[in-house]
Design brief:
The protein contains 3 helices and 5 strands. The chain has about 120 residues and is of the alpha/beta class. The termini are far apart.
């Protein structure tokens, strides 16, 4: 059985799959309302690329407004998830580490307002 993705399993990932930044080195600097699939597949990926290229510690706090499902999925994985990029050359799988916190506004309104 494959272990669940989290900060403890990162050291076992191949270099080409691991996040381009050290997730533990990122402070929350961005609060994104609506951390759905589009944000995770595009904006969070671009944010991680920008940090890797230019430095900074602009980790993302993703806020879900509809349901706690995204928080329930990402929290046990320390905000880590995989993205598969497909093109004519094949597939490229990478773990994204830019999301450092997830909150559901229905249960975490005070934390959202503080962020």
């Amino acid at each position: 059985m494959t272990p669940r993705l989290d900060l403890a399993t990162l050291e076992h990932l191949p270099r080409e799959v691991a996040p381009r930044v050290d997730p533990c080195a990122l402070a929350v600097g961005i609060v994104h309302l609506g951390i759905g699939a589009f944000h995770r597949a595009h904006q969070a990926v671009y944010t991680e690329h920008a940090i890797a290229a230019g430095g900074g510690d602009w980790g993302i706090c993703g806020v879900t407004q509809r349901s706690p499902v995204v928080v329930e999925q990402l929290a046990p994985q320390d905000g880590l998830y995989t993205v598969t990029e497909r093109d004519g050359a094949g597939d490229c799988v990478r773990v994204i580490g830019a999301v450092r916190e997830t909150l559901w506004i229905g249960a975490d309104l005070d934390a959202v307002m503080e962020r």
